[in-house]
Each structure stands twice: as structure tokens, then as C-alpha cells.
Predict the structure.
Amino acid sequence: MEWFRIKTSSLLVRVAVDEIVYVKADGNYCDLVLINGRSRKMTFQLHYFEDNFKLLKSADMFIRVGRSLIVNRQYVQVIDLIDQVIIFGGKHLTREPKTDISQTYRPDRGDEVGAGRDIYMVRVSRDALKQLKEQLENMKGGEAI
């Protein structure tokens, strides 16, 4: 298991790389969102995470999406260009969906999306979503979305 370390003068945070769902910019801060539903506000800008993710053995897991988001590609389940959202899913995610879009993709409706798992949803610009969609479509390894 590979660990991502975040260090400051008074803090050390260690997170297993495969537990990071996404990092979202919020001004001079970032929200680091994990598979267990926890979010930690960090006093770093997004480029800090981008630069440090590149140093990991599993650097290809993380994709920059527009100006304010880095996603872990293994959790990207739906890219919806019409509603301009990314929906994250996976058997390890534990957060309860609490957004309007979750009603569209409710697993109990028989939709394949979600497949009985909880989901996350993040709004993103259409151009950024198009770029992410293209990147994921062109990746090797037969990973289809």
C-alpha cells in the first residue's frame, strides 16, 4: 500500500493513496475527500497536490480536471456532460448520497449506475468534463466508462 503524506510545521497526515476519491480546490484551501466519506480541509492550493501526486508510484491514478479538481480515476463512474457532473462510485465508498442528482442515479431504480453502492457527485465545467472523458476513453488497459 502506498501512502500520501501531507506535512506542515505542526501536522503530518498520512492517507492511503487508494482511499483518496478526489481533491477539490476552495480558494487557498483544498478539500481532500476519502472513500469513508470524511473530508479534510487542507491549507494548500491544488497545485501542491498535483505536484506531489506526480511523485507517487501510482501517479497515473490521479487526473486533473479543470482548474479546481483532481480525481482518482478508479472511482469515476459517470461523466455526465448534460448535467455537468462527475459521479464517483465503487464498492468501497461509504458516504450516503445527499444530492438531487442521486435521485437520477438511484441504484434501487434498477439503473446500472451505482449498482447498490453509495455515490459522490461533483459539478464540473463542460469543457473539463469533455477533457476527462477523452482521457479516460484513450487510456490503455480496457477501462471503459
Observations:
- The chain has a mean pLDDT of 81.
